[in-house]
Design goal:
The complex is a heterotrimer. Chain A is built from 28 helices and no strands. By secondary structure, chain A is mainly α. Chain A has 2 domains: about 220 residues, MetI-like (MetI-like fold); about 200 residues, Orthogonal Bundle (MetI-like fold). In chain A, helix 23 crosses helix 24. In chain B, the strands form 4 sheets. Chain B has a 6-stranded mixed sheet with strand order 7-8-9-3-10-11, with helices on both faces. A 5-stranded antiparallel sheet of chain B has the order 2-1-4-5-6, covered by helices on one side. By secondary structure, chain B is of the alpha+beta class. Chain C is α/β, with parallel strands linked by helices. In chain C, about 45% of the residues lie in helices and about 15% in strands. Chain C is globular. The chains are: A mainly alpha, B alpha+beta, C alpha/beta. At the A-C interface, helix 3, helix 13, helix 14, helix 18 and helix 20 of A face helix 1, helix 2, strand 2, helix 4 and helix 5 of C.
Chain lengths: ~600, ~375, ~350
């Protein structure tokens, strides 16, 4: 009998461990007829609206957005002046943010999975908290912290240098990188769990230093690193939350912002926005091509033979101090400071004696709870988010399953490319594409009246979360050994029972997290809500933005904070219920 | 703890025959099974032997229903389960399987892992638990019912997997290299247990391995697969003593290969071969015509050492290793041919000249061309 | 794709898959249709796209007064205009109600506005000047661009002319909105150009402002936030925003430097509104300009958009507003300045904002 000190993690051995030589995942379910259905769903949700929007770049006349049937002038404009600068900035920021996020995320993953660092068990929860909080909040929090009359200044610290650092390219990159850390952490953690210690041990035995051992382990987890880098890059270049706050206030043009201004101010130039979107899609595609080049078709998360679960490095006092400092610093930057900043902003009375701590007031919060106009949007958004999250998880699992299969490489590669392309496209593009695609007069003549309905809004939400969500599920899905499912089938379980008794328990935790990710993301989603919400059915984010736009900074921020805290409370409750209600064995599987 | 229920190992439906006919299966461009036919009689223990990539796992998975055949048919208990457009899913084939990586569900205790296979028998939870516990005790895991797989050693995990396969009294048991992830001594021990338990259960068994010792020890019949084709399918002794092809001979163990020329027929079933000026009696394979060049593949057990001059061949000892029950020698013949693992109770020193005798029942002659063409494959 | 491992489960997997997808779609459809069905009644619903702070109060009052079911899409001007533009082939709105005549002039040129409707009310002279000759939109009130907002506890002598802003006293102390984000701010930029005698002269002024350390924020709210957090001393924002800030904190004051550019809030009716809906849309405009409607408009957002100058001679502005006739004001011709918006905003982005 083998007892190890890290029992909670050993449970993942069978999940994350060694897929045999036939490690193709074979979850039962959406096979056969399911695949065409999945194709149709993706076509309607993502491909069609995106294609329609992108078509405007070369043929504005197609959607009555200009006189020309074919033109390249939009590209010429997109590749000049500020828009070009924005594109270049976006690409540089994306690459740097991806590199920083992967480095920090990998270090964090190693500390959590492979060392005796105290407090490592709460790190995954913090990571998810970062993932769940909107990027808008991070940027806002940083701004509140360093602006001339911000939190630091009120505490008597006038950190001018820090302000210039944060309110500029470095700050933008830093915030995006901290937001990318969760992707890197989750992907690399999964790979480390599958990577037995023998690789490192073999290297150490053959005379490599600890650093040398790392050099041996790195190429083995390289697929995970590349995958994480690609997604952080795509997320960063399509981010709007940071672009519209920190980057805009710092007068640091990035592509999403120039795209937004093309759409958001008169005259509205969908053509130029579409051209910028093309270039962002291309950049996302390049990232995937680079990833595939670097890996030369190696499938990730499929690690050889029979891996022995790695022991943990016992950190010395120095290492422990260093590790703790790193973790604390990281989460202060990624979570603490934004929350502090946003909370302080919402406590600040807007005008009048706005200087000094005595002016902090809870009246903004009181308003949030007494404003009856807010309850409707909250309920609507919560319900839409729940439906979206449920569908997104179902479809995301099916997509992830397709993506981890090593056979059918062409289709998989196209799908992979399309999904990363979709991640790289700001959701505002998707939303505008939805209008083009689903408000065509011909549809009304055909009796299809999707536009202006909650169904279409829901589809838009689904399209918004699906690309990222399915990539998040790839890791866990890849680690369910095919034999887990085969064994259930062979021993008499039908497809449905196999899902219920084996697949769902093994993936319970990732499914829960993915659901929450989609739920929170949809709850506070802005661009799609703005362009697609049906008359009279105001979503939460639109209600919040309206307050912010009506010069009610404190009230708007208070609403934002309340919403985020409320969402986190729901997340906490869901996790608590998971611990309470789910059978003990389920919690052993996956981490 | 409640006393374990008495175990019924006899299959509830009687043991099933399995018949595969001209089964073809490809993965993309790679042909994994290229027209394989075989029959497992009820209660028979059949071992499929082959190197990796030979298609043995694919065949097993086709029988299990995990893979779908491209062509050919598979019938279990006389009922067709695969072929044409028909494909009966695994859960409706009434079989059980032990996996190479154990495939225990990490979120279930040992007991629940085992009891899972009983659910299709629609037994009450109490009875299922009792049977699961009894089965676990039967495989030597009494007292470990509540352990999760990650709290068990590799050998213990495979015993749980074995218990899971046996508990439902299936009529057909499939084994996918169940011992390959275990240490040598544990492997031997568990192999004996598998043999005993399966024979007690009376079920038909299809067992795949790449280890010839395991194959001969377990199998009533042994099939040797190569490149998706069944090269030989026969009783274990027959495969060992009369390999049908050079590949089968090599895969079941040869200590060296000698080049020679076929002569006339000797005793019944034997033929003389001229090797290094000596005339040896060997078992001829198909196509050995007199005067043609042949390759003689020798089993280690057929080679014996003698004082120089008292045996047809001479050689020089190049290496010697103490093996406890005697010594293994590496012998080099005058033309440079080496014979490995030649056993003798007495030690011959390195460099010493020895006489070498080849027993006819352990020496197989194949036409040189077929022997050479088969070389690359293994 | 027909590879091995899935094949075994096709027979059942198909059903499992189909069931799962069908259930999921049904779930979505059911949840959504329930919401879609609500609110339907005998009359054709009227759809209002509006960015005004008092719009939801107005819609509620209108429904109550007329029984016409009215649905509101309430958002900032930018997203609303983007939506209108994207819906061009098949407009879903009946009423558009936002600030700034240039946007309406542009929509009119694209043939998206119903022409020739004028409610029979007594407009002020300013109101009459704001009505376009083809009667494609209707003014509902005016604000001005740009009020100079300051904190009187920190600034004792506010500027008295636009030229004053160029003095070293205000170096790095002035903030304004970005015209490509904040619609009314383009009106300010264009108004300054008109006032100084042309685009070139206006550009020169903004370049000097920039040389004096002008900071550009996104919207009224952002610029005022910069003022309250001490990043700037003077905020150039819409009059309603400045006066509203003064209502929240007495130390915040606004001055109106000559000349102020008038920013009308306007209602346009879509060419997509026909028959009964067109009648309903016209009733909406008439209701807004009725006594009851103006009460709602002045009460709906008392610290924000309600701080406008009415364009009806029968309605007085809220007490917090100075007398409009005492201010030096101008109107910019939307047909002249509307088409130049993109070019001027681009120039601003490249030369002033960055």
């Amino acid at each position: 009998m083998v007892r190890r000190e890290h029992q909670g993690l050993t449970a993942t051995e069978a999940v994350a461990g060694a897929p045999g030589r036939r490690a193709r995942l074979a979850l039962p379910g959406l096979a056969g007829a399911g695949r065409p259905l999945l194709g149709i769903a993706l076509g309607l949700l993502l491909v069609l609206p995106m294609a329609f929007f992108l078509a405007v770049a070369v043929s504005p006349r197609l959607f009555a957005q200009g006189p020309q049937w074919f033109t390249l002038s939009n590209f010429a404009q997109a590749l000049s002046g500020q828009t070009l600068q924005g594109l270049v900035d976006s690409l540089v920021v994306g690459v740097v943010a991806a590199a920083v996020a992967v480095a920090a995320g990998s270090a964090l993953a190693w500390l959590v999975q492979r060392t005796t660092l105290p407090g490592r068990r709460i790190v995954p929860i913090l990571v998810w908290a970062v993932l769940l909080s909107p990027s808008y909040l991070s940027a806002l929090g940083w701004e509140r912290l360093v602006e001339p009359d911000g939190v630091l200044a009120q505490m008597g610290l006038h950190a001018l240098a820090l302000r210039h650092l944060v309110m500029g390219p470095i700050g933008v990159t830093l915030v995006l990188a901290t937001r990318g850390v969760p992707f890197a952490f989750l992907t690399v953690s999964a790979a480390l769990l599958g990577l037995g210690s023998e690789f490192e041990e073999a290297a150490r035995v053959h005379g490599a230093s600890r650093w040398g051992a790392l050099r041996v382990a790195l190429p083995i987890v390289a697929p995970a690193l590349w995958s994480a880098a690609a997604i952080v890059f795509a997320e960063s270049i399509s981010d709007f939350g940071v672009a519209s706050t920190l980057a805009a206030d710092a007068h640091f043009p990035v592509a999403t912002y120039t795209l937004f201004t093309a759409i958001d101010s008169t005259p509205i130039e969908f053509g130029i926005a579409a051209a910028v979107a093309w270039l962002l899609v291309a950049a996302g595609g390049l990232a995937i091509v680079a990833q595939q080049r670097a890996l030369r078709g190696r499938s990730y998360a499929v690690l050889g033979g029979r891996t022995r679960l790695a022991g943990r490095h016992r950190l010395g006092p120095g290492g422990m101090a260093l590790g703790l400092a790193f973790v604390v610093g990281l989460f202060l930057a990624a979570l603490g400071i934004p929350v502090l900043g946003a909370v302080s902003a919402s406590l600040l009375k807007d005008f009048g004696a706005a200087y000094g701590l005595h002016a902090w007031t809870l009246s903004n919060y009181r308003r949030v709870f007494t404003d009856d106009g807010l309850l409707g949007p909250i309920l609507l958004s919560a319900r839409m988010a729940a439906i979206t999250a449920t569908l997104a998880v179902v479809i995301g699992l099916a997509l992830a399953r397709l993506l981890v299969r090593r056979s059918a490489s062409t289709l998989t590669r196209v799908l992979d490319l399309a999904l990363i392309g979709a991640v790289a496209v700001p959701t505002v593009v998707l939303a505008a594409g939805y209008i083009f695609a689903y408000n065509l007069p011909i549809l009304a003549r055909l009796g299809v009246s999707l536009y202006g309905t909650l169904t279409l809004l829901g589809m838009g939400y689904l399209a918004g979360v699906l690309p990222t969500l399915s990539r998040m599920l790839i890791g866990p899905v890849a680690q369910v050994q095919a034999s887990m499912v085969d064994a259930a089938r062979v021993h008499g379980a039908g497809g449905a029972r196999t899902w219920q008794s084996v697949v769902v328990p093994l993936l319970a935790r990732p499914i829960l997290w993915a659901w929450l990710f989609a739920w929170v993301g949809t709850l506070l989603e802005l661009p799609i809500s703005q362009l697609l919400y049906p008359p009279g059915e105001e979503p939460l984010s639109v209600a919040i933005t309206k307050h912010l736009a009506n010069y009610d900074f404190g009230g708007g921020t208070a609403m934002m904070v309340v919403s985020v805290l409320g969402a986190l409370a729901v997340v906490g409750a869901a996790l608590g219920l998971f611990r309470l209600l789910v059978p003990a064995g389920w919690r052993r599987a996956g981490s | 703890m409640r006393p374990a229920a008495r175990l019924e190992l006899a299959p509830e439906p009687p043991a099933h025959p399995v018949e595969a006919h001209e089964v073809v299966k490809s993965f993309g461009a790679k042909v994994a099974l290229d027209g394989v036919s075989l029959r497992v009689e009820p209660g028979q223990f059949v071992v499929l032997l082959g190197p990796s990539g030979s298609g043995k796992t694919t065949l097993l998975r086709c029988v299990a229903g995990i893979e779908r055949v491209d062509a050919g048919t598979i019938a279990i208990a006389g009922r067709r389960v695969a072929g044409g457009r028909l494909h009966l899913p695994p859960d409706r084939r009434g079989l059980a399987m032990v996996f190479q990586d154990y495939a225990l569900w990490p979120h279930m205790t040992a007991e629940r892992n085992v009891a899972y296979a009983l659910r299709r028998r629609r037994r009450g939870p109490g009875e299922a638990r009792d049977r699961a516990r009894a089965m676990l005790e039967r495989v030597g895991l009494g007292g470990m019912f509540a352990r999760y797989p990650n709290e068990l050693s590799g050998g213990e995990q495979q015993r749980v997997a074995l218990a899971r396969a046996l508990v439902g009294n299936p009529s057909l048991l499939l084994f996918d290299e169940p011992l390959s992830n275990l240490d040598a001594n544990l492997r031997e021990q568990l192999r004996v247990e598998i043999g005993t338990l399966v024979r007690e259960s009376g079920a038909s068994a299809l067992y795949i391995t790449h280890d010839q010792a395991e194959a001969f020890a377990l199998g009533d019949l042994v099939g040797v697969l190569r490149g998706g084709r069944l090269e030989q399918f026969d009783e274990a002794e027959a495969v060992y003593t009369r390999p049908a092809t050079p590949f089968v001979a090599r895969f079941t163990g040869v200590c060296g290969e000698l080049q020679g020329r076929a002569g006339a027929a000797a005793l019944p079933g034997l033929r003389t071969v001229e090797v290094l000026g000596a005339r040896l009696a060997v078992r001829p394979g198909a196509g050995c015509s007199p005067g043609e060049p042949v390759r003689v593949l020798a089993r280690a057990s057929a080679v014996s050492l003698h004082p120089p001059g008292t045996a047809p061949l001479v050689g020089t000892v190049r290496d010697v290793a103490f093996r406890g029950r005697g010594y293994d020698h590496l012998i080099e013949l005058p033309d440079g041919t080496r014979l490995t693992g030649v056993h003798d109770e007495a030690r011959r020193e390195r460099g010493a000249a020895v006489g070498v005798r080849l027993a006819a029942e352990g020496a197989f002659a194949f036409p040189e061309a077929s022997a050479v063409s088969a070389e690359g494959a293994s | 794709m027909g590879a091995g491992p899935m094949a075994g489960r096709r027979a059942r997997g198909r059903w499992a898959g189909l069931t799962a997808l069908a259930a999921a779609l049904a779930l979505m459809g059911a949840a959504c249709s329930q919401a879609n069905a609500s609110g339907s009644s005998g009359k054709v619903p009227l759809v209002v796209y509006s960015a005004q702070g008092y719009d939801s109060a107005m819609v509620t009052a209108f429904q109550k007064a007329t029984g016409i079911p009215t649905k509101l899409v309430d958002d900032s001007t930018g997203p609303l205009l983007a939506r209108v533009q994207a819906e061009k082939d098949n407009p879903q709105w009946d009423i558009l109600w936002v600030d700034g005549a240039t946007a309406f002039a542009a929509l009119d040129q694209e043939g998206l506005l119903h022409r020739g409707f004028e409610p029979s009310v007594a407009f002020t002279s300013v109101g009459q000047q704001l009505i376009p000759s083809d009667k494609s939109y209707i003014p509902t009130g005016v604000t001005t661009m740009a009020a100079v907002v300051y904190d009187s506890s920190k600034v004792s002598s506010p500027p008295t002319s636009w030229q004053d802003l160029l003095s070293p006293q205000w170096s790095k102390g002035i903030g304004m909105n970005d015209p490509s984000v904040s619609g009314p701010t383009y009106g300010f930029v264009a108004g300054m150009m008109q006032q100084f005698g042309g685009a070139a002269q206006g550009e020169a002024f903004f370049e000097k402002l920039k040389a004096n350390g002008l900071q550009v924020f996104q919207t009224n709210g952002d610029t005022l936030h910069a003022l309250t957090t001490g990043q700037i001393k003077l905020a150039l924002v819409q009059s309603s925003a400045g006066i509203g800030a003064g209502l929240q904190a007495s130390s915040i004051k606004s001055v109106f430097l000559p000349t102020q550019t008038l920013m009308p809030g306007c209602i346009g009716i879509s060419t997509g509104a026909k028959g009964a809906v067109l009648k309903e849309a016209e009733r909406f405009a008439e209701f807004v300009l009725s006594g009851a409607g103006q009460k709602v408009q002045q009460g709906g957002d008392p610290q924000g958009d309600s701080l406008y100058w009415p364009v009806l001679s029968s309605v007085a502005p809220l007490p917090a507003l100075p007398d409009l006739s005492a201010l030096q004001t101008q109107i910019i011709d939307p047909t002249l300045w509307g088409p130049r918006e993109a070019g001027i905003n681009q120039w601003f982005d490249a030369n002033i904002r960055g």
